[in-house]
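This part of the workshop introduces the protein records we will be handling. A record pairs a protein's sequence with a compact description of its fold. As an example, a complete record with its sequence and its C-alpha cells follows.

_____
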Amino acid sequence: MSFNTPVRKGSDFAGLSVAIITPFANGEVDYGRLREQVEFQVSAGTRCIVPVGTTGESPTLSHDEHEKVIGEVIQCVAGRAKVMAGTGSNSTAEALRLTKRAAAEGADATLQVAPYYNKPTQEGFYQHFKAIAEAVDIPVCVYNIPGRCGKEIEVETIQRLADIDGITMVKEATGKLDQCSAIIGTTDLTVLCGDDSLTLPMMSVGAEGVISVVGNLVPSDMIKLVQAVAAGDLRAAGTLHHQLFSLCQNMLGLATNPIPVKAAMMLVGRDTGDLRLPMTPLESRELEKLQQTLLAYGMTSAASLV
C-alpha cells in the first residue's frame, strides 16, 4: 500500500532497514560478534543493514574503527542485503571523507545525520547535504532527528534538497506525522520512519519503511508489520503495531539508545559486550523492568527471535 503516487527516488530501500549495534569486548570492537549480528539480520530477511549510526555508538568510535566496521559489514553482507553506512558528522569535511571511503568500500547508500551541536542555519543544512551528495555516486538519506542534534531540518529545506539528484531519502525522526505528510506530499523522496513505534502511522500516510532499532531483536516481526502495511492489510498491521508498541515503548523508553537494546540482546542470549563511555549500563531496577517486558513479549531465548 502506498498513498504517494509519484515514482520516488530511493524506493529500492523500502521495507525494513536495521540500525545495528556495534559489539565491544575488552574495550575493542568485537568483529566476530559483529558478523554474527549481520548474519542474524540477513537470515531474517532484513532488506538493508545500517552500521555505525547512533545505535552503533558511532560517536565513540575512532575514525579507523568507523571505517573498519563499515567495511566488515559490507564484506559480510556480500550483496545479500543493502548496506546504508552511517557516515554523517557535524563537520562537512569529515562527513565527506567518511562517505567517500564507504562508497569506495561498496556501500549502497549513506545515512547522513543532521550536523549536531554547531546548529547550522537552514542554508547551512542545505549546503552541507548538497556538498556530500555531489561528491559521491551513492544515494544519500538525510537523517532528521532534532532530539539528538538540537535543531530540525525544516520541510522547506528538505524540499530544496529533493531537487538534488543524489539525495533520495529522508529518515524522519521528528515524531511529527504532519512533517512526514508534508515531505511525502511535496517531494519525490522516499521517507523512512525513524521511530519504531510510529512505523504504522507513518507508512499509512506514505512512508515506505523504517530504519529500526527494535529490529536488532525482532526483525521478523518488524518485517511482518512493514509487509502488512504495504499489502494494505491494516487489520493485521494494527495487531502487529500494538504487539510491537509495548516492546518499543517499554524497552526504548528505559534509557538512551542503544543502552536498552544492547541490554535486551544480552538477556536473550545474544550478548554484544560493553557500552563505551559516556554510555553506561542499565541500573538493576531498569534491567528488571526490561526483563519483564521481554518475557511479556514472549522472548525466553534467542531461538524465539528468529
Remarks:
- The two ends are 26 Å apart (CA to CA).
- The longest strand covers residues 167-172.
